[in-house]
Amino acid sequence: MTLRVGVIGTGAIGREHVRRMTQVLKGAEVVAVTDVNAAQAREVVDAFKLQAVIYENGQELIRAQDVDAVMVTSWGATHEEFVLASIAAGKPVFCEKPLAVTAEGCKAIVEAESAFGKRLVQVGYMRRYDRGYRAVKEALVNGTIGEPLILNCAHRNVSVPDFYTRDMSIVDTFIHELDVHRWLLDDDYVSVQVVQPRKSRLAGSHLQDPLLVYMETAKGVRINGEIFVNCKYGYDIQCQVVGEMGIVSLPEPMSVTMRSEAKLSTGLLTDWKERFIEAYDIELQDWIDSTLRGEMNGPSAWDGYAAAIASDACLEARDSGAIVRISMPERPSFYRHPSEDKAASGIS
Ligand SMILES: NC(=O)C1=CN([C@@H]2O[C@H](COP(=O)(O)OP(=O)(O)OC[C@H]3O[C@@H](n4cnc5c(N)ncnc54)[C@H](O)[C@@H]3O)[C@@H](O)[C@H]2O)C=CC1
Ligand SMILES: O=C1[C@@H](O)[C@H](O)[C@@H](O)[C@H](O)[C@H]1O
Fold it and tell me: Is residue 173 within 6 Å of ligand 2 at its C-beta?
């Protein structure tokens, strides 16, 4: 069976996901695309020799009879509208992060999906599929380093495009950390403080770059985070958890060491596409397979909502300079995995 997918937004990641669905993964065919930049949609159809209809807009694509499932890879601020329309049409939808740019927007999606009565939404938090992050999670679950106490992390990009706004360092960039640390630690955030160090002269004048983010979780873990989106030297994602009996760190991407011209050196990546290429492949193959089985396994609309509650608080903390409390509503049973319910009721 083949999942017929319609893609809304064929820019950087939309193009990448079309490439992997067409050339790398199994079980999906891109049958429809749309982009507000029609030339961009045409370019992708031609580049991958797709037998796909180019729709005027996302709403028309979602309504199309032959689109079984929707992929939303347009700008963050447009996600909410397309995810809500997909739910209204009863179609499974893979939405790139963020699920919506505010917690209020995510809440509307959670409510619509709950009212529909079946999970339809997966959010593109691909780090949960990254082998390195999974190894860190496994070490934490196994208790190898005892209980986690401190998490140190950094999200560094070489540079960002001109359209990158001040809020995007939180709602578009650090949102990955907000999701993956909640998942890694199996914990929720209770407070955040955002501190603005000396500003880099190499960042756009409208940006405050870098930023430091200090968070506390319900279990008392302290998170020290750095966001630096014009670091110039590479795409560098760091995560280290200090526990009672040891430290577990995210492995560096594989890279040869060179001895050459009187130097010992190791290359760094510069692009998110390469850094997480395997994670995106695994993530989307899982989405295709589970959607074909009529299930939805990956990061849920609730996870998207939880990350957005934290990112709203980060923005408030950045603007006020205060420590902002984060209050996370209790996760409804609709968003629990069946195995968690069994564990909670003692059924094995
Ligand atoms: N999971 C990850 O690591 C990554 C996720 N993303 C997310 O994917 C989304 C897109 O990011 P990029 O591809 O980097 O941006 P981009 O700007 O390269 O591409 C977005 C495309 O969407 C189109 N678009 C915008 N509004 C639209 C609308 N209403 N209808 C149809 N098309 C529309 C634009 O014309 C553009 O071609 C963002 O939400 C971003 O956060 C992006 C990069 C990596
Ligand atoms: O998701 C991504 C981009 O949208 C975002 O703008 C970058 O900062 C991240 O590193 C990348 O993974």
Answer: yes
- Residue whose CB lies within 8 A of the most ligand 2 atoms, among 153, 173, 175, for a mutation test: 173
Question: CB of 157 closer than 6 A to ligand 2?
Answer: yes
Residue 174: CB within 6 Å of ligand 2? no
End-to-end CA distance of the chain: 33
Q: Please, what are the domains in the chain? A: 3-127+278-300 (3.40.50.720), 131-272+305-310 (3.30.360.10)
- Please give the torsion angle defined by the CA atoms of residues 325, 122, 72 and 192, in that order, rounded to the nearest 10 degrees: 10
**Cα–Cα nearest to 173, from 78, 76, 80, 104:** 76
pLDDT band at 337 (very low <50, low <70, confident <90, very high): confident
ipTM of the complex: 0.99
> Is the pLDDT score of 345 beyond 90?
no
Average pLDDT rounded to a whole number, residues 22-34: 98
CA of residue 10 to ligand 1 center, whole Å: 7
Task: Say which ligand is closest to the CA of 11.
Answer: 1
Q: What integer is the mean pLDDT of 187-191?
A: 97
Closest ligand to C-alpha of residue 38 is 1
